Amino acid sequence: MSDVRAEKAFPVYWEQFHRDARALAWRLAGEARASGGFDAIVCVTRGGLVPAAIVARELDIRLIETICVASYHDYKSQGELAVLKGVCDRVANVRGGEGAGVLIIDDLVDTGSTARVVRGLLPKAHFAAVYAKPKGRPLVDTFVTEVSQDTWIYFPWDMGLSFQPPIREGAAG
Ligand SMILES: O=P(O)(O)OC[C@H]1O[C@H](OP(=O)(O)OP(=O)(O)O)[C@H](O)[C@@H]1O
Ligand SMILES: Nc1nc2[nH]cnc2c(=O)[nH]1
Ligand SMILES: [Mg+2]
């Protein structure tokens, strides 16, 4: 989201996230049939951890690795992208090297910067995200829902219940 101001909010609740992550698993099951399956999952921390758990359960994948990337240091503003931990050789070479047979999972692609770096490390892997914005979309092999570039997605783990003032008290203005 670095150069476009996020004007619209897209809040996602746990039930919806579970449904969308399952929809991703259904699509990936089709991909797996066509491509010979996935032997391992690499989840992009931290956001990729949650959909990775759901997809791993649905596709019965038990070899799971993380790639630890940090870039959004402040809320909504992307800084320098740092890979804090790469992928172990056992997973990167699970089917002949360069990420062949590996499924990479993240919660979303926005500008595509994170996906570009991760794909560079595992060029033969399949990259999946639950949500995609237009700039990041060319970097993803499989996703479920596209939102506009000026939308900020609020995940259930980032939200909590809070009091809402009644509309007549000015909240609608
Ligand atoms: O396409 P991009 O513009 O690179 O943005 C997408 C990345 O941003 C978020 O991660 P973030 O860096 O905020 O860290 P987190 O997963 O630890 O929350 C999200 O989980 C993606 O990994
Ligand atoms: N939660 C959240 N993190 C992001 N990182 C980059 N874009 C987004 C977004 O829309 N929502
Ligand atoms: Mg992330």
TrEMBL record:
UniProt pathway:
Purine metabolism; GMP biosynthesis via salvage pathway; GMP from guanine: step 1/1; Purine metabolism; XMP biosynthesis via salvage pathway; XMP from xanthine: step 1/1
**Positions that bind xanthine:** D110, I153
Point out the coiled-coil segments of this chain.
none
Query: Pfam families attached here?
Result: Pribosyltran
Q: Where does Mg(2+) bind?
A: D107
Enzyme class label: transferase
Cofactor(s) recorded for this entry are:
Mg(2+)
User: What keywords are annotated for this sequence in UniProt?
Assistant: Cell membrane, Glycosyltransferase, Magnesium, Membrane, Metal-binding, Purine salvage, Transferase
Cellular component, GO, one term: plasma membrane
Q: Which InterPro entries does this UniProt record tie to the protein? A: PRTase-like, PRTase_dom, Xanthine_Guanine_PRibTrfase
- Binding-site residues for guanine, renumbered to this chain: D110, I153
Query: What topology does the record note for this protein and the membrane?
Result: Peripheral membrane protein
Q: Where is the Phosphoribosyltransferase domain?
A: 14-163
GO MF, one annotated term: xanthine phosphoribosyltransferase activity
Keyword field contains Ribosomal protein: no
The lineage's top-level taxon is: Bacteria
Q: Name one GO biological process term.
A: GMP salvage
User: Glycosyltransferase: is it a keyword of this entry?
Assistant: yes
| Binding residues for 5-phospho-alpha-D-ribose 1-diphosphate | R46, G47, D106, D107, L108, V109, D110, T111, G112, S113, T114
Q: What does this protein do?
A: Purine salvage pathway enzyme that catalyzes the transfer of the ribosyl-5-phosphate group from 5-phospho-alpha-D-ribose 1-diphosphate (PRPP) to the N9 position of the 6-oxopurines guanine and xanthine to form the corresponding ribonucleotides GMP (guanosine 5'-monophosphate) and XMP (xanthosine 5'-monophosphate), with the release of PPi. To a lesser extent, also acts on hypoxanthine.
Q: Which HAMAP family match?
A: XGPRT (MF_01903)
PANTHER family recorded for this chain? XANTHINE PHOSPHORIBOSYLTRANSFERASE (PTHR39563), XANTHINE-GUANINE PHOSPHORIBOSYLTRANSFERASE (PTHR39563:SF1)
Oligomeric form and interacting partners? Homotetramer.
* Similarity-based family: Belongs to the purine/pyrimidine phosphoribosyltransferase family. XGPT subfamily.
The name this protein goes by in its record: Xanthine-guanine phosphoribosyltransferase
Give the species.
Methylopila jiangsuensis
